[in-house]
Structures are given as C-alpha cells and as structure tokens.
C-alpha cells in the first residue's frame, strides 16, 4: 500500500544567505545562529503549511571560512553539508547544488517539492527543468536579495520571504541595516581622542519590557542571574554552555529560542563584538525589567 505522505527536499545556498545576513545586520547578531533558526523554522513551515515532510536537507558553502560551530549545528538539524572551496568564481557552490538537485529529481521520485533557500538567478535553468518534470519549486530568500527573474520563473505564490522565518527581534533589525563605516576624516577625529570604555546600553536600547511566561525562558533567566548576574556583560557562548549543562532535556534550538524570547521581552539585549579569529556575542541585562528584578540575587 502506497504512503500518503508527501515529501520535500531543501537545498541551501548557505554561504550566500550567511553573508547577506552578516553584511546587513551582522554587527548585532550572529549570522550562524540566524541561519540555524531559519533552517529549523523552514522545515517546520513546510510541514505546517504544506503537510510535507522534509527528508533531504543539503547546505553548500566554503565552510572552512565560517565559524567552527556552524557544521556542528547543521549536523544536529539533520543537514548534510557540502564543503565547496572558495574560488574566484562564486558559482562553484551553485553548480554543485544544481547537480545534487538533478540527481535527487531522477533518483528520488517520491520527492515532489524542491525548496531552494537561495535567491540567485543562476538557479533559473534547474528550476525550469524541475517544473517541466511536474515538480513543485519553492524559493525562500530575503526580499531585497532575490533575483526578479527567478521570482518570475517560480511565481510569487511560491516565494517565501526568509525574514519571516526569523524571530521578531531579528526581523526588525532589517528595517535598520548596519551603518557604513565612518569616512576617514571622521575616523581620524575620533582616533585622536583618549580611549573610553563603552557606555552601557540606554534603557531604550532594550525591547519594550513584557512579562516572561515561557517556562524555558524563565529557567534560562534564572540560570543567567544565578551564574552570571554579577557580571556587567556575559559571553553568549559561556551562557549556552551553562544552559546545556543545566537543561539536558532541551534541544539546542530550544535553548537559543529562550535567549531570543528573553530579548524579545526586553529582559536582555544581545550585541555582537568584533574579535579574532571570529566575532563574538555578549548579553547585556536589563536591570529595570520586572522579571530580572525578581530574580536578581543581589
């Protein structure tokens, strides 16, 4: 008896999307974390909106250039990674992705829907080929980073803005992209001043305080205050390490979702800082938030 389950495959131009996020809002969030949330949310969206089970997930990038945490996070999400070494020609990853799409189409007839987390016009030929063979094609990309020609080929009804897969706190950042570096004249003026420590964020830099009602988020806040409440700022990596130790029954995306929820509700603010060899993120606590005040050990 044949199964009534419908199946889908997801192909991710990881490097392209990753660097778009980094170049647009990367001074405030970790692009890798954003990508993981999008991949997880996309699989859930495909199931909830289309009743299709994602059985193939492939991601393409020169992963040697990215944070070492990216590969581990993708593995936990069930994504098969393909390391495409960087060359002068960007389309190396595009070509590998297209080859794998064609292979899946001919060898996996049960897959009727192909989802591209990508927006380049280079994918038009393979998209057209899929449609000729009666496959459904969906394109997921950022509205300002998707080829108009690609949209014409798939149709607006088969396009999903990738921003909708992100937490609300990250979505609003795209309304205020990162500022360009100051011109040399202004830089020189600043450099002549004595160095001063960074100012703590003003209250308006936090989201509007709202009650925290999610159990996982409350537990995360409790751990944050107990373990790090006496520090002016907290490394996100250190906080996640504590969360993993104290919440072994949660998945990693649930821990990160708790951090996003705390930021959405104004209890914390996550800032990205430049560093070597990789940038890093820190948590700043809103001491005026009612839930923070209730859990403040001091």
Describe this protein with a few key phrases.
three-stranded antiparallel sheet, 298 residues, 12 helices, six-stranded parallel sheet, elongated, 2 domains, 17% strand, Arc Repressor Mutant, subunit A, Rossmann fold, alpha/beta
What does this structure look like?
This protein has 298 residues and is α/β, with parallel strands linked by helices. It folds into two domains: 6-174, 3-Layer(aba) Sandwich (Rossmann fold); 198-295, Winged helix-like DNA-binding domain superfamily/Winged helix DNA-binding domain (Arc Repressor Mutant, subunit A). It is 43% helix and 17% strand. The protein has helices at residues 14-25, 31-50, 69-76, 91-107, 124-132, 148-154, 168-171, 184-191, 215-228, 236-246, 252-264, 290-295, and strands spanning 6-12, 52-61, 80-83, 111-117, 136-141, 159-161, 234-235, 268-273, 280-285. Strand 8 and strand 9 (280-285) form a beta hairpin. Helix 9 (215-228) packs across helix 10. The N and C termini lie far apart (64 Å). 33% of the residues are buried. Residues 180-203 have low confidence and may be disordered.
Topology:
Elements: E1 6-12, H1 14-25, H2 31-50, E2 52-61, H3 69-76, E3 80-83, H4 91-107, E4 111-117, H5 124-132, E5 136-141, H6 148-154, E6 159-161, H7 168-171, H8 184-191, H9 215-228, E7 234-235, H10 236-246, H11 252-264, E8 268-273, E9 280-285, H12 290-295
Parallel strand pairs: 1-2, 1-4, 2-3, 4-5, 5-6
Antiparallel strand pairs: 7-9, 8-9
């Amino acid at each position: 008896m044949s199964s009534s389950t419908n199946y889908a495959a997801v192909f991710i131009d990881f490097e392209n999307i990753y660097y778009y996020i980094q170049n647009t809002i990367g001074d405030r969030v970790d692009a890798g974390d954003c990508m993981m949330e999008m991949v997880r949310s996309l699989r859930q969206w495909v199931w909830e909106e289309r009743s299709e089970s994602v059985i193939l997930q492939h991601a393409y990038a020169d992963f040697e250039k990215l944070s070492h945490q990216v590969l581990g996070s993708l593995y936990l999400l069930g994504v098969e990674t393909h390391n495409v070494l960087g060359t002068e020609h960007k389309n190396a990853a595009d070509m590998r992705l297209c080859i794998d799409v064609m292979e899946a189409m001919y060898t996996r007839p049960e897959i009727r829907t192909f989802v591209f987390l990508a927006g380049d016009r280079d994918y038009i030929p393979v998209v057209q080929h899929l449609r000729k063979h009666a496959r459904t094609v969906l394109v997921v990309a950022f509205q300002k980073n998707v080829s108009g020609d690609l949209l014409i080929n798939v149709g607006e009804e088969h396009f999903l803005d990738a921003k909708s897969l992100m937490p609300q706190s990250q979505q609003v950042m795209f309304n205020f992209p990162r500022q360009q570096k100051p011109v040399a004249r202004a830089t020189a003026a600043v450099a002549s001043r004595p160095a001063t420590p960074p100012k703590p964020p003003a209250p308006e830099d936090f989201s509007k305080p709202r009650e925290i009602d999610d159990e996982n988020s409350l537990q995360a806040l409790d751990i944050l205050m107990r373990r790090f409440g006496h520090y002016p700022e907290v490394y996100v990596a250190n906080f996640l390490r504590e969360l993993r130790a104290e919440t072994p029954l949660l998945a990693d995306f649930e821990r990160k979702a708790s951090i996003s929820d705390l930021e959405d509700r104004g209890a914390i603010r996550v800032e990205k800082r430049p560093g070597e060899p990789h940038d890093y993120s820190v948590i700043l606590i809103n001491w005026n938030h009612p839930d923070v005040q209730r859990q403040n050990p001091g």
